[in-house]
Design goal:
With 460 residues, this protein is an alpha/beta fold. Helix content is 16%, strand content 26%.
């Protein structure tokens, strides 16, 4: 049977704000602190170094950070879903992914998880307003010829759709290209090799894509990325740059790049083409990376994460990036370097210290007047120096801290009522954590999920 899952968010049609991901000049969209009810955990795919987790009592709701247009993964335990966040969705999401109903912002919104042909009647009878509300369509199998006309009706009503094509079986080049041509999607999650194999037929249907998430396993080249004129956000995992060559320099509008678990022995960032237009770079768990001096060419950079890049020890390039407002430091950073970096970057609004075991004192943050957001999974330093800090609005603490010192966490939260305090874990590899491929049915596309128990190697 052909399964097509549709996630729709029933928001009324409105005029005014641009769709998520629409090019906007000037400052980056703000980072929202988003609390999410009805889920066990949540990950922001675009900044995937850590997972927000549900706690107990007043910390029951996991909270994460998201900009307008970021792609989230919401795990409700028995059910899971991707969700592209819009700033207009608000900062308190109620999510129910059981069956066919989803609650967002306290409003009842329609979600369909359909197996063709069982739910063809619902789609055929859906009003234009319902069709406009669809956020994305996930294909778990290739649609048949008879399904394309119905899909065309959805695409005609809704030009802001995303598409997720996670399965390989049953897809041929013609069907893949036809589905993408029907939708001309705003964003796409798929395999790079699938696009590469039929680039001449597929690329014309991707001219509006502003966010692209790729599993690059099996790809031989990514040169076709330079033919996507609207591309602004790019996520790649399971990539072997030695086999594909670098990201081409022709991605002139690319402003955000996320690379997760890249397989390369190259010590430097030779596999990233033009760094100059990038405003946000998240390099997570790239074990071969040791030389980040090329980042000096990213003159527009405002957000940078080196979480899990264990071999990165020379951070002198940060002196040439004075406009950073978000920074994720590698686990090797020393206490002395940490203090110096904080002092030299007065514009910092957010800081990630994941598994930064050398950081034992957060006192340098007392003088960071603009610091608002702090992420501390697996970092031994206590938050004592932060007591009374003005302006703090988000604090992610290790899951273990909530378990071992719940009273301390409650007291800190009570003393800082403007701050959202949440439980968080860094992404891990090894027994108990697995990397699911971007096209795996469980995760839609590849981030990480805890399964079972056992030892693990955590990155941060």
């Amino acid at each position: 049977m052909k399964a097509i899952r549709i996630l729709s968010v029933g928001l009324v049609v409105f005029l005014g704000p641009l769709p998520a991901g629409e090019p906007q000049e000037g400052a980056l969209p703000p980072l929202h602190v988003v609390k999410i009810a009805g889920v066990e955990s949540a990950i922001n795919y675009m900044r995937p170094a850590w997972t927000a987790r549900a706690g107990e009592g007043e910390f029951e709701l996991p909270a994460l950070l998201a900009r307008d247009g970021d792609l989230l993964f919401l795990d409700a335990g028995s059910e899971e879903s991707a969700f592209r966040y819009r700033g207009t969705d608000g900062t308190a999401l109620g999510v129910n992914i059981e069956g066919k109903r989803v609650l967002v912002r306290g409003k009842d919104v329609q979600a369909v998880s359909a197996t063709f042909p069982a739910d063809v009647a619902w789609l055929s009878a859906a009003s234009r307003e319902d069709l406009i509300a669809i956020r994305h369509i996930e294909f778990e199998a290739a649609p048949g010829e008879a399904d394309l006309s119905m899909l065309g009706r959805i695409a005609e009503a809704n030009r802001d759709l995303g598409v997720i094509i996670e399965e390989e079986k049953g897809w041929d080049g013609t069907t893949f290209a036809r589905v993408l041509t029907v939708f001309s999607p705003r964003w796409l999650v798929t395999r790079a090799a699938r696009i590469e194999a039929d680039a001449d037929r597929v690329i014309p249907a991707l001219q509006r894509v502003d966010l692209l998430a790729l599993n690059a396993d099996g790809a031989k080249s990514l040169a076709w990325l330079g033919r996507l004129p609207a591309l602004r956000r790019l996520f790649i995992c399971d990539w072997k740059p030695n086999e594909t060559g670098p990201i081409p320099a022709g991605c002139a509008r690319l402003s955000m790049l996320t690379l997760l678990l890249i397989e390369t022995d190259a010590p430097a960032l030779t596999y990233v083409g033009d760094l100059k237009p990038l405003r946000e770079i998240f390099l997570v768990g790239i074990e071969g990376l040791s030389d980040v001096s090329a980042l000096a060419g990213a003159s527009s950079l405002e957000s940078l994460s080196l979480a899990g890049c264990e071999k990165v020890t020379d951070l002198s390039v940060l002196k040439r990036l004075p406009n950073l407002t978000w920074l994720g430091l590698p686990p090797s950073v020393s206490q002395e370097a940490f203090a110096e970096i904080v002092r030299e970057h007065p514009k910092l609004r957010g800081l990630e210290l994941l598994s930064a075991t050398n950081i034992v004192d957060l006192a340098p943050l007392r003088d960071a007047k603009g610091l608002e957001m702090l992420v501390l999974p697996n970092t031994p330093a206590t938050t004592t120096p932060l007591w009374g800090k003005e302006g703090l609005r988000f604090l992610a603490l290790p899951e273990e801290t909530f378990e071992s010192s719940p009273e301390y966490v409650r007291a800190f939260a009570k003393a800082h009522p403007a701050a959202t305090v949440t439980s968080a874990t860094p992404f891990c590899l090894g027994s108990g954590w697995i990397l699911l491929l971007p096209l795996g049915a469980a995760l839609t596309y590849g981030i990480l999920r805890r399964r079972g128990s056992g030892s693990a190697r955590c990155h941060g």
